[in-house]
Amino acid sequence: MRYLKEPRPDPTRLIEEKLSVAEELYHLWGESFRADPEVPSLLEAYRQAVEASNRAMEEAGTFRECYVCSVEDGQGCCKIGLENECTVLILLLNRLLGVELPQKREVPGRCFFVGPRGCKILARPMLCRDYFCRRHHQKVPEAAMIRVTQVLNEELTLLYRITSLLRARLEFWTGDFLQELDLTGYT
Questions:
Q1: What 3-state class would DSSP assign to 51?
Q2: 128 near 94, Cβ under 8 Å?
Q3: Are the C-beta atoms of residues 187 and 9 closer than 8 Å to each other?
Q4: What is the DSSP letter of 6?
Q5: Domain spans in the chain, listed from the N-terminal domain onward
Q6: Residue 66 — very low, low, confident or very high, per pLDDT cuts 50/70/90?
Q7: Measured between alpha carbons, how far apart are the two ends of the chain, in Å?
Q8: What is the pLDDT at residue 68?
Q9: Which site from 22, 23, 123, 159 is most exposed, i.e. has the minimal number of CB atoms within 10 Å?
């Protein structure tokens, strides 16, 4: 029996759609979010939490191990399609944080958001921030991994709080029909 092989869908198409929706929401509602009584303080708290997480990861050596794995060993976790873990709300959050979103994949075969020096967005999905592979557990001391996980907890809690708030505001302003804001997936 012969099996028909269906071509794999291009994962870039989905992230391009999400980017388009996020940009449209940003242009329509960005000023309203900036004027909101809760959003600006959460944005700043989130930015500070990301910076604290990055410092802890740098000190622990996780960034170095990711670099060695990706660049020197040609492996790495940030493969093509992973970008679709990013929701419209996370993309909108990046815009509210002043991040210019990329318009094309810069590194072939890698996540849409990977550039020559790592990730090009500030707000990232939980999977991208709180994933530690076997290499990390072998190369980074356990105490350092525990510290990173503790620091990341604040960032990820704020990510949830702010994306939930953005969703609630958008649903209030536009109606209760924005189901695709949390869409993830690889196809």
A1: helix
A2: no
A3: yes
A4: P
A5: 11-171
A6: confident
A7: 27
A8: 82
A9: 23
